[in-house]
Amino acid sequence: MSPLLLRGARLPDGDVRDLLLDPDSGLVARVAPPGVLPSGPDELDLTGHLLLPAPAEPHAHLDKALTWDLAQALPAGAPAGALPGDLSSAVTAWRAYAARVTEEDVFQRAGRAVDELRANGVTAVRTHVDLLTDNGSYRAGDPLRGLRALLRLRRQLRGRVRLQIAVLHIDAPDELLHQALDLGADLLGDCPHLSADPAASVERTLRIAAEHQVGVDLHADETLDPGAQDLRLLARAVRERGFVSGVTASHCVSLGAVEPEEAARTAKEVAAAGIGVVALPLTNLYLQGRDRPSSTPRGLTAVRALLDAGVTVAAGGDNIRDPFNPVGRADPLETASLLVTAGHLTPGEALHAVTAGARAVLGLPEAGPYEGAVADLLAVRAQTVSEVLGASCPERLVFAGGRLVSRTSVVRELY
To answer: What's phi and psi for 116, nearest 5 deg?
Structure first.
């Protein structure tokens, strides 16, 4: 393919520049003042657009996506939806629906969800996938059907969206975890706080992941209980083991429920262990705190303490209209906006969490409108970062590896 020349784009620092993208290398080849770079056969005029690093989605559940209305329609007497809206109710509702899930069902819904993510600017996704049970048993049916669907989708998306798959389990048999990783899953996940023995669960997950030389991404401390210890257990285990394949802790809600001094101490342990943390404001604000109708706490990790300690912090959208959250636009800019509102980050910090921070957690090289960076870019019709996060700004162009992969145009008529 020919190089692609972007004309008149406004960069995050306010400068207006032309950029030359090289689709062969997938990198930004040149950045120059307007008019310096010679014209070529392929050009786009980005006047009026802010050009940003493309977001990454560090925590999705594509196997569950778009099932809220389907779960609500279960036969009379079956658990439906996620009422009263807490985590345990959501788990019950999903398990009731999951018994009906087929490989093709997951493949089709996950594909539609990725299309939404891609149109909003996402060029890389890490999705968790359940090992599906039948009446609570991992040994009945095909518990790997969700994984098989996402492996198919990963092959289909090559060159447009990079898809990482983390196997999510709760006390599943070792042989099933080995089988899932042998099939091609990229990471091993776990929910230690839902296990009978969280410390043993963390140790087992790290051991099996190390045997397969894959990374780990745990659902950690998804509770407002200040006594939850998943994150500290993980940090200590990683430091003792010297685990090198990459470790992520997602949710970490309880860290936001402890005193500042304790949050700071834990954050330092997490930084020392090299663990990345993914904040998930949309789903956690929906699920957490329902048992406290007065002065309801924010269901959000201690993002400021983590940043101050030097932890790599990312932010994700988590669930997209499923029993764990009936809303969600598959839009990282919505996630970043919530980090400003509920997490009290600056717009720049919040944008970093869904772009550079998210890519760092995924182990991907830097992307952005800079020479030598990966040419994964998002052009939004806006002038400033605060406008991007505050106004929704649906008009977007998305570039992956130097190629245009999505364009959304809007016609607005006011009378």
So the answer is: -65, -45
Tens digits of residue pLDDT in 279-306 = 999 999 999 998 888 888 989 999 999 9
Predicted TM-score of the model (pTM): 0.95
Residue (of 375, 384, 381, 383) closest to 405 by Cα position: 375
Helix axes 198-212, 174-183, angle to 10 degrees: 40
What is the 3-class SS of the chain, one letter each residue? CCCEEEEEEECCCCCEEEEEEECCCCEEEEEECCCCCCCCCCEEECCCCEEEECCEEEEECCCCCCCHHHHHCCCCCCCCCCCCCCHHHHHHHHHHHHCCCCHHHHHHHHHHHHHHHHHCCCCEEEEEEECCCECCECCCCCCCHHHHHHHHHHHHHCCCCEEEEEEECCCCCHHHHHHHHHHCCCEEEECHHHCCCHHHHHHHHHHHHHHHCCEEEEEECCCCCCCCCHHHHHHHHHHHHCCCCCEEEEECHHHHHCCHHHHHHHHHHHHHHCCEEEECHHHHHHHCCCCCCCCCCCCCCCHHHHHHCCCCEEECCECCCECCECCCCCCHHHHHHHHHHCCCCCHHHHHHHHCHHHHHHCCCCCECCCCCCECCEEEECCCCHHHHHHCCCCCEEEEECCEEEEEECCCCCCC
- pLDDT tens for 188-247 read 999 998 888 999 999 999 999 999 999 999 999 999 999 999 999 999 999 998 887 899
Note the pLDDT of residue 78. 46
Q: What does the mean pLDDT of the chain come to?
A: 93
pLDDT digits (tens, 9 = 90+) for 345-387: 999 999 999 999 999 999 999 999 999 999 999 999 999 999 9
> pLDDT at position 162, please?
98
Residue 379 contacts residue 45 (beta carbons within 8 Å): no
Percentage of the chain with pLDDT > 70?
Answer: 95
* Measured distance CA(217)–CA(246) in Å, rounded: 8
- Do 78 and 96 contact (CB within 8 A), yes or no? yes
Q: What are the structural domains, with CATH classification, of the chain? A: 4-51+383-408 (2.30.40.10), 56-361 (3.20.20.140)
Helix axes 347-354, 332-341, angle to 10 degrees: 140
List C-alpha distances in Å: 52 to 163, 169, 303, 363.
21, 35, 22, 19
